[in-house]
Amino acid sequence: MLVLSRKVDQTIVIQHNITIKILEITGDRVKLGINAPRDVVILRQELQDEVRQENLRAARPSTEVSPLLGAAADALARRRAPSTTNSDKV
Amino acid sequence: MTNDRQDATTGVDPSQRRALVFDDGLIGCPDWRHFVLEPEAAGPAIQLLRSLDEPDVALYVADPFTILPDYEFEVGDADGSPLDLSDPGDALVLVILTVRNDPDSVTANLLGPLVVNVRTGRGRQLVLAESGYSAQHPIVG
Fold it and tell me: What is the pLDDT, as a whole number, of residue A61?
């Protein structure tokens, strides 16, 4: 990990075209301003971790089909618009 | 419409399977790149996204708009241009389901949807950062 110290209003440049500026420091909170090309994904780490952890929880051997899943399938099928299934007439 | 509970490995018409490639894998799982999408894994509303890279990895997926009719988000350039979604009709959105056992329930990850270009067979997992959607949106239980 590269460790740098910055003061308010100072900036770090990454890959020539991504900049991170220290906008404000209040107590233990740092406000950052980030400029990056539109094709760069920027996320708070907690959100990325949350999705990653849910991916890992969701992955399961494909031979298991929990009865709960059948209940979920029924619940979702009931919510579908009748025109897509031609089952119930409303 | 049938309501049969089917084992995930039977009852699938092979011609309905779709090979998909996630060039960057899934979030936090960059090696999960090649999948087969199999319809009707547990009834018509749930499909199985089976990994070709990891034999133990298979994800149940469903249509998020059935789960939450108002579900919506923007696909920014960061995610949109690798997918070439110049025609929005090419987009298929799926969310991953988690079967949980404490308590017994099924939830959907609305925070991290999968967006697939059905024309090219390529997909990405997005993180809807400021959406307020839950990674554990309850469906049953």
Answer: 65
